[in-house]
Fold:
Amino acid sequence: MELLPLVCLCLLSCSGDGVRVVVEEDSDAVLPCSPSTKEDITAKLFDWKKDGQEVFMYDSGIHYNNGHGSQDLQFKGRVSHFQDQLMNGNASIKIQNVKMADSGNYICIFPRLQPRQTFNIELVVGVKVVVEEDSDAVLPCLINTKEDITLKLFDWKKDGQKEVFMYDAGNHYNNGHGSPDLQFKGRVSHFQDQLMNGNASIKIQNTKMADSGNYICIFPRLQPRQTFNIELVVGASPEPYITTLNETKDWSLLQCKVRGASQEPKVEWQDSSGNILPAEEPQVSERGGRYYVTINTTVTKTGRYRCVVTQKEINHQSRAETFVFISGASPEPYITTPDATKDWSLLQCEVKGASPEPKVEWQDSSGNILPAEEPQVSERGGRYYVTIKTNVTKTGRYRCVVTQEGISHQTSAETFVFINVNSSSVSEKVCEDCSSAVAFVLGAAVLAVVVAAVPFGLRATNCITVSFNQGAAPDPTTTSNDPTKDIPLLQVRVTGDHQDQNGSSNAP
Ligand SMILES: *[C@@H]1O[C@H](CO)[C@@H](O)[C@H](O)[C@H]1NC(C)=O
Ligand SMILES: *[C@@H]1O[C@H](CO)[C@@H](O)[C@H](O)[C@H]1NC(C)=O
Ligand SMILES: *[C@@H]1O[C@H](CO)[C@@H](O)[C@H](O)[C@H]1NC(C)=O
Ligand SMILES: *[C@@H]1O[C@H](CO)[C@@H](O)[C@H](O)[C@H]1NC(C)=O
Ligand SMILES: *[C@@H]1O[C@H](CO)[C@@H](O)[C@H](O)[C@H]1NC(C)=O
Ligand SMILES: *[C@@H]1O[C@H](CO)[C@@H](O)[C@H](O)[C@H]1NC(C)=O
Structure:
């Protein structure tokens, strides 16, 4: 059950000399008071009281909010006057965040005016309870003093006349004393253990649409007599239900279902910022006065999505949320060697079309972050393209690591670089060096696959490129994005979805 932000119900109705102000609980109430003379009251005295409690006093610029007088605790810090309205003879006050207990009869007095003027204002703080059909509803009622009401009388009525429940010092409708309207027979109970707290709330079981309406809870014998207003709305939509019908690495087909709302709801898909998503036409069916709604949408970006159900007539909204991970969002990085000599190798790592924006780093085989040029980042249609280069001078394995923190996703690619600093002086031995290097590289490649564990992440792809440069005569290199054009002596490339943590399942 969720209520929309309260829409002000500020009804003003004049009955005789009194004014009635009706507001919903938790909103602010303005209680009006203006002497007929409309004279400037900036230098006058006025006093607000409620059933004997001190609510607010103003005396020529001094008032309860600047340290004057002894305001009742119930109102401390919640009541203010309208300073700029005083010169128009307006002594209205605002009570913030009203509660049921603020309901009652207020008076606004000008004791020093001739003739002395007094105004009566009744404040009614209404409560709205919204429930699904067939569920139970608790209608709240709590007297202002919170005194024990075990030996008191209280009465619940619906729409001014129907008898709902009556309690009188231990006798009530459920123990053979009187009976309610047929509509409520056997369905309404009070909370015996709450009576000592002044709590006269009731529970209506198995609510039906016909139970919707305005209820009052009355204490006819209390002085002053207390009345509370509660609006019951039956027919709220149950929470929607989200399923993923189909998904690929590029999109996800989501379905939202609302089952059995009693008032026809509007159902929409929204992204996390509240933008309405394009969706297929919803399917709506009605059986026995209940509405069943299904609506699909296809999303192509990683993120949070929600299905929102709005029932305007009853001012009610409910929602469900889901997180969608689009794995195509973070493609594997590509490693190339745009330039190399016998002494160094320039390595380039490219990530194309990642979303959300990734962090891309070069690491050595121990996981140390390597100094690298500032990455080049560009963005097209919410997808990020990142290129980062590093210059290495030692034989070893190097890794390009792509991290998308927001979605706990990491992927990496690895390359092996062989720097033969002595190649020119040992040209005759190149072949031997070569074969042993290949053997070593093979071992390293297998090892790399095994150790390329993905520390976290839902899915990860690993791409391992192993290559080495032959001393002074480096292989022709290209900046092509395709690592296979890099003509390494040996290349092992592994890709795949690793669901297991050690990532070894795809080893060649
Ligand atoms: C008094 O001031 C309040 C707050 O500005 C305003 O809402 C109210 O209408 C005013 N009353 C009169 C009679 O002008
Ligand atoms: C009154 O009692 C009902 C039932 O136990 C409870 O749900 C409700 O919160 C109580 N109200 C207050 C104001 O304590
Ligand atoms: C999911 O979508 C793919 C691609 O459109 C399609 O080939 C496949 O049949 C769909 N699967 C289901 C269960 O609908
Ligand atoms: C939602 O998609 C599923 C699978 O493609 C389809 O069977 C169903 O009819 C769709 N529902 C709506 C309301 O578009
Ligand atoms: C790589 O580093 C070496 C040694 O520090 C340097 O001589 C060479 O110019 C660098 N290459 C590039 C492309 O920056
Ligand atoms: C390179 O050659 C020199 C002299 O022959 C030798 O001392 C050195 O250890 C060699 N370095 C490597 C890395 O093989």
In short: The two ends are 55 Å apart (CA to CA). The pocket of 2-acetamido-2-deoxy-beta-D-glucopyranose (ligand 2) is lined by residues 138, 140, 142, 191, 194, 199, 201 (CB under 6 Å).
